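Structure ticket #2291
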Amino acid sequence: MTQDTGVVALEAADFDDPRVLLSRLGRTRPIHRVTLPDGMPAWLITGYSEGRKALADHRLARRGAAAAPELNPFLQGIYNDGFFPHSMVFNDRPDHTRMKQVVSQAFTPRQMERLRPQVQAITDGLFDAISPLGRADVLESLALQLPNAVICDWFDIKREDRDEFVSHCGVITGLTVSVGDDAMGKASRWFDEYLTAVIAERRARPGDDMISAMLASQEANQNLTDVELRSNIFLMLIGSVETAVNMISNGTLALLRNPEAIELLRADPTLIGGAIEEILRIDAPVMTVMYHFATEKLTIGDVEIQPGEHVAVSLTAANYDAGQFKDPELFDIRREHDRHLSFSHGVHFCLGAPLARLEGEVYFSTLLRRLPDLALAVPDRELTWKPSFLVHRLHQLPVTFTPSPPFGS
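Resolution: structure written out below.
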């Protein structure tokens, strides 16, 4: 059994392309000892089978108390915060189960179908704004706008608060590796104070929104403490946005790089579901799942993990595992698969996945109808990515297309 083959110090740029990451670490082993770009030591899993098993392994805990003491300096911004650790993403069973019972009611198939007309209306409005122009930045005009508008309307977040909401989201999701504990703490306090005020307002004047619905459930069942309620509402807001933003922009780029896929979709719109899954696989919106701590000695691949050690999973690398996906570097919207790890796996599988898929279905179907002759406005090599090893976000995605009048004009 291999215990250590040397530590690889990774940079944020290594995560931009799973082929680069696998080239640095090697494709023959599924787990590697690394130093992450923020300096935190970890065992990084790149193998699909090993990653899937680890994400569902109850011996790998999310709670910070399970981490070895030497990891504490890297956990201050999250686990010592008075707000973040109270969401289900940083908790294990049975607390995770208790919280999920309240939160999961938001993402049922019935709720998603109720949202579909609203998602379509918002999408049509965004395309109306750009279709006569013949040129747009997909990230700024579409990808950022659609998920934020959907979730903020659903939760009835005031329009005048949304820009600040989006700004603090960027800090939390690690869109720059230079974010320190001070910035993280400031964002935490903003969300905590903001949601405290929103919840007080909804208790006094309930509305037809998801926060009001959660409060009604909470009054009946008392499943969550006040801080757990705020922290999990925050998780639903931010988690539902981040995945969809990157899926939309990265997916548009994937289609532009593979024009034959656009022709296939226009010829057969029923392929849209498979196209979304392939978009999620080929360029996962969330690249790395961190903060799993061994509660006992366990073996992953040929490595023995010691209690307290940190295990992270590269979702992007796992999605390029040739043992799971034939020709993994090939973008194939007719690929028969539904087992990519882009929404994670196990009890921490992304609850917002149904909403992201709904938004993707509506967005990409509308894109193909509304923007003829879609093309990159700059050479592909000029596109750049935000410096992050957690999420995969373009700086911008400028495109051109044949101008057309707004819908229904």
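Closing remark: Residues 8-400 form a domain with the Cytochrome p450 fold (CATH 1.10.630.10).
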